[in-house]
């Protein structure tokens, strides 16, 4: 398997993207299930699953919570775009692109330290 010498800005963008995705997932998990206020409801028997499931009242998301989610989603999109369109990929053989992009996602966590950014 080939290894790649990723540029620091690409590694930083990938590291930032991983963090933004974790922050977004944590935020959405902590928020009410419905963006808009919604009364409690119960899924009928046999609908998607064999057991009923109840949902409590949802106060909805505050304006600030909606802005926070939007900001994280925008940042996620911008970072993903920066990674995918980075000039580094022009120097990787077409047949190796998929593997190189996959390795980038794990470059900062490798035990041998290769690809790891010095702090």
UniProtKB/TrEMBL annotation:
Domain of life: Bacteria
Keyword field: Plasmid
Region described as Disordered: 44-65
Name this protein carries in UniProt: Nucleic acid-binding protein
């Amino acid at each position: 398997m080939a290894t790649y010498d990723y540029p620091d800005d690409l590694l930083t963008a990938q590291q930032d993207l991983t963090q933004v995705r974790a922050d977004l997932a944590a935020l959405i998990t902590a928020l009410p299930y419905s963006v808009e206020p919604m009364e409690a409801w119960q899924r009928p028997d046999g609908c998607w699953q064999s057991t009923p499931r109840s949902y409590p009242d949802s106060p909805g998301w505050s304006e600030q919570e909606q802005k926070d989610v939007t900001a994280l989603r925008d940042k996620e999109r911008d970072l993903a775009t920066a990674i995918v369109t980075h000039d580094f990929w022009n120097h990787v053989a077409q047949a190796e692109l998929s593997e190189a992009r996959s390795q980038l996602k794990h470059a900062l966590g490798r035990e041998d330290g290769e690809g790891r950014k010095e702090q």
